[in-house]
């Protein structure tokens, strides 16, 4: 069963949140190649508030089109933004839906974007998930 799209652009990128503050992602979980930092305009839906576009630097694998955002950094930026805008929203559930066209995002920074036009220039993620760390195992020849 396919999920319904929010954005009007074709689905793009795979996305994962890294829930481990002490673990940094340097290799792509899919291809094991080195990931690079890149800024993305993330489309986020916040419960009982609505849509937000947040420019966030994430780890990115161009080969796999895979984006990894560190959850604690994302939540810190959301908390900072809502401390000024609407403090009662802090702590509400949120969902990272996709990305927005960079040109349209920059127009939104200037305040020239409506909700409808925002979604017209947004692309949902192909897939979304969380990263899971599998601990290394120690082994020995001795019994």
Structure, briefly:
The chain has three helices and seven strands, in the order ββββαβααββ. It is α/β, with parallel strands linked by helices.
How would you describe the overall organization of this protein?
There is one protein chain. Helices cover 20% and strands 33% of the residues. Strand 2 (36-46) and strand 3 (50-61) form a beta hairpin. It has helices at residues 71-85, 102-109, 115-120, and strands spanning 14-18, 36-46, 50-61, 66-70, 94-100, 122-124, 127-130. It contains three helices and seven strands. The chain has one domain (14-127). With 143 residues, it is α/β, with parallel strands linked by helices. The relative contact order is 0.27. A seven-stranded mixed sheet has the order 6-5-2-3-4-1-7. The mean pLDDT is 85. It is globular and about 45 Å long.
Task: Give the number of domains.
Answer: 1
* Average pLDDT number: 85
* Fraction of helical residues: 10-25%
Please provide the count of β strands.
Answer: 7
Low-pLDDT segments? none
Main beta sheet: 7 strands, mixed
User: Radius of gyration in whole Å, from Cα?
Assistant: 17 Å
Largest sheet, spatial ordering of strands: 6-5-2-3-4-1-7
Alpha-carbon distance between the two ends: 50 Å
Total DSSP helices: 3
Any descriptors?
7 strands; 3 helices; 143 residues; alpha/beta
Secondary structure layout plus pairing:
Elements (H helix, E strand, L loop, with lengths): L13 E5 L17 E11 L3 E12 L4 E5 H15 L8 E7 L1 H8 L5 H6 L1 E3 L2 E4 L13
Parallel strand pairs: 1-4, 1-7
Antiparallel strand pairs: 2-3, 2-5, 3-4, 5-6
């Amino acid at each position: 069963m396919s999920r319904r799209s929010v954005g009007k652009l074709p689905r793009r990128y795979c996305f994962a949140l890294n829930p481990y503050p002490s673990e940094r992602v340097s290799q792509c979980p899919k291809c094991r190649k080195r990931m690079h930092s890149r800024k993305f305009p993330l489309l986020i839906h916040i419960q009982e508030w609505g849509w937000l576009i947040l420019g966030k630097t994430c780890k990115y694998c161009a080969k796999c089109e895979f984006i990894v955002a560190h959850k604690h950094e994302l939540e810190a930026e959301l908390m900072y933004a809502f401390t000024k805008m609407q403090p009662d929203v802090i702590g509400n559930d949120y969902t990272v839906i996709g990305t927005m066209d960079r040109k349209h995002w920059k127009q939104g920074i200037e305040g020239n974007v409506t909700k409808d036009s925002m979604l017209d220039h947004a692309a949902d993620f192909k897939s979304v998930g969380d990263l899971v760390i599998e601990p290394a195992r120690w082994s020995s020849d001795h019994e």
